[in-house]
Amino acid sequence: MKWQTFGERVVYDSPWVRLTLVDVDVPGHGRIDHHVVRIPAHASGTVVHDPQRGLLLLWRHRFITDSWGWEVPAGRVDPGETPAEAASREVLEETGWRVDEVRPLMTYHPSNGSVDQTFHVFVADGATYVGEPSDPSESERIAWVPLEEVRRLVRDGSLGDGLSVTGILRYLLELD
To answer: Among 30, 42, 86, 160, which lies 20 to 30 A Cα-Cα from 102?
Structure first.
């Protein structure tokens, strides 16, 4: 069944996020105002894999959930930039490692029942260290983590960021 929409009104708006109420007819339930979070910019993340080192990850704190965890390099796609360009840029800015090429792994919507956010995940085979990250506020630590350790981190919840978990698990499917 397809839900039919009849308009949308903005409750809050900023360059980062917009909250709207959408007038929608839900089959079998009638018309309701449904809250929708609109994220104007897409985000890109990169699973950087080196066969000898493992995956390039960042150990960081997220204040929103007050949690620490490992994540892949990721960030928003800037205006005029492709998702692939953003993926490469974010790796360099956040880690100080440069990737030569990224290839698409997947695109998905992490919470499509209420948020229109789009994540693009890429893969890079290896990277070259070029210096300290240009944005040191992104993480407490940067490390190459062996794949067996990455699998353990996913299982025990130490790697709990949605973009990272989804991208890494999808990438691991390619290796099996």
So the answer is: 160
